[in-house]
Amino acid sequence: MRILSFLFVLISFNIFAQTENNQIVYSFPKVKSSITMPVTIPLSEISNMINASVKDLIFQDDSYTDNDNDQFKVKVWKTRPIRLVGDANQNIAIEVPLKIWAEKGIGTLGVYTYQETTFETVMYFKTALNFKNNWTVSTFTQPMGFKWIKKPVLDFGRIKIPITSIVESSLKEQQYKFCKTIDEQMASQLNFQQYAVLAWNAFSQPFNISEEYNTWLKITPINVNITQLKFYGNQIDTNIGIDIFSETFTGTKPEASQPARAMMNFNFIPLLADKFVLQTTANIPFSEATNIAKKSFLNKEFDIRDSKVKITDIKVYGEANRIMIEADTEGYVKGTAFISGIPVYDEIKKKIILSDTKFKLKTSNFLQKLATSLFKGKIVKMIEDEYGIPTDEIEDSSKKSIEEAFNKEYYKGLKISGKVFNLKPSKILLNDFGITAVIDTNANLRFTLKGF
């Protein structure tokens, strides 16, 4: 099974490289957050389980002489599928429609006259359902009596004998046995441990969020929280919250987490939100940031006091908490300009840009104060206006990939459906390798068990 109100609890930096087929895998901040999803269990699914386990012929008494020689035979069938309805008291009402054939003998000294009759009734039960934190379900089923559609009567012509009490006596006995059958079948069929393991392991598989940049998102579940079951007319609802670590990798697909063989116990909590914010990371190596700068500025010329300045080389790297752009120039100003700034996300431009820019010039030429000021103003404004690392493609591809992962049937009958409402960077971090954007993904998920 692959689901919630989000806390950005921890960012830890684990930057390392792994080599596989001479390809490098870079990992970036491991972000702890949570996924929340409502879970719907249609009562029709539980009803299907019960109907599949309970044969049409529920009870049969073929002996005239048992039960103190009662001279009575009876057969009881289901006339249509057993029906389940949730009630306001967290119970399931079970309705079993029955057809009953009965035959009764009247006589003395071993000489009997037999008459048969067929009639219908409805048998009622009440089941209290308890979802245990080891992913199993226990139930306690109690009989809730009968409703006669037509009371059974044996017609011997002049003598008409009501046999309601005789039939009810047998049915009550069988009803208590039927309660045990219901509880046994529910305990057997509603064991979600195996489904939870399958979903957990499937959800732990890394998935590609950018083919162009060969970027992978790996989600590692940590623990599970669940709200108490709520019963409605045709379904059981609950919310599942999965605390996770999400990691982003570039390069070769990372290995999946060690597969789980059994699910850990979950925790019951009173409330979980329907929507959540999943925090992932997108990463831009400084080599890529340098390429973007070269495409924008390499060999670019601009005027200073009727002369030309040309950018001959440029590179981008990190220094403390700032991005450093180092530009070599020739012409009126021959030297190296250092423009640094704090990276921030511009939501309008959909780019990572520089703020709080600072300038430093290293040159062997002696420049007048005015010329230096003009050069600074030109190159800094150009960098501020034109340099930026676009994130729109990362955002679009991430949204598409996450929605694909959120809309799958990971195992027959266990279906996840979800939608990403918006996705945007919230924090920009620097490390030795490059720039990391922590991306907030506002989404919702729904988990439905159907046809399992």
Automatic annotation (TrEMBL):
Q: Which keywords has UniProt assigned to this entry?
A: Signal
Instruction: Indicate the secretion signal residues.
Output: 1-17
- Pfam families, per database record: DUF4403
Question: Keyword Signal: yes or no?
Answer: yes
Q: Which domain of life is it from?
A: Bacteria
Name of the protein described by the UniProt record: DUF4403 family protein
